[in-house]
Amino acid sequence: GENVEQHPSTLSVQEGDSAVIKCTYSDSASNYFPWYKQELGKRPQLIIDIRSNVGEKKDQRIAVTLNKTAKHFSLHITETQPEDSAVYFCAASSRGSTLGRLYFGRGTQLTVWP
Amino acid sequence: KAGVTQTPRYLIKTRGQQVTLSCSPISGHRSVSWYQQTPGQGLQFLFEYFSETQRNKGNFPGRFSGRQFSNSRSEMNVSTLELGDSALYLCASSLEVRDSLYTKNIQYFGAGTRLSVL
Q: Is B91 helix (H, G, I), strand (E, B) or coil?
């Protein structure tokens, strides 16, 4: 089945700096890649997603890039703020035999220092 | 629209007991997935149900089981509880948006049930 690796596991940045979280996947049939943010004590929530026919997608301060050839995708957060502090999960899914399942990375704890 | 509702929010059980957790998905969503979350272990996939059928299964022992009803509500059951089963159990409902090439599987999570096994 699919295997999603996520790095780094922890990331500390100063407020205003950029943060980058990287994920790799193994199944070339994966074609949908969402990112979830989980604040302390809260449920994971979708923040951005990308399909495999798109190389980059932006939404205000966050962006996701996808390299299908290398099978990796990344989350970029610019001008970080303390409220960006959370655990971020990447995920992948396909329309194949595992339709309906999201394969999650192990998460990145992002801390933004004021 | 009401969000995903999980009950109960907290549970305390002792080893050897069994427990049933409930998840009511967003109206119209037919897929329900279950995850176990422990510190440092991320989101461990348990299983996914779609239209009352288990469509995907993770690598958990047979003590973990689930089902889905005709109204899409889902339950998961853990029998013979072990100390290591202490965790936050999250369910997520999804509405699959399909076109000719892609299925966008956006999962909406409930607040979870925190299970403590003593």
A: strand
The answer to whether the CB of B3 falls within 8 A of the CB of B90 is: no
Candidates B101, B105, B111; nearest CB to A100 = B105
Answer for the pair A86, A110: CB distance below 8 angstroms, yes or no: yes
Distance in angstroms (rounded) separating the CA atoms of residues A81 and A54 = 27
Residue of A102, A106, A109 for testing the chain B interface, max B β-carbons within 10 Å: A102
Per residue of chain A (114 residues), give pLDDT as tens: 889 999 999 999 999 999 999 999 999 989 899 999 999 999 999 999 998 888 999 999 999 999 999 999 999 999 999 999 999 999 998 877 777 889 999 999 999 999
Cβ(B21)–Cβ(B113) under 8 Å?
yes
Burial group, residue B94, by CB count within 10 angstroms (0-12, 13-18, 19+): buried
Considering CB atoms only, which of A32, A44, A101 is closest to B48?
A101
CB B102 to CB A45 under 8 A?
no
Relative to beta strand B64-68, strand A72-77 is: unpaired
Alpha-carbon span B11 to B15, nearest angstrom: 13
**Residue among A94, A87, A103, A44 nearest B4 (CA):** A44
The answer to whether the CB atoms of B45 and A103 lie below 8 A apart is: yes
Tokens encoding A6:
């996520």
Distance from CA of A17 to the nearest CA of B (A): 25
CB B90 within 8 A of CB A104: no
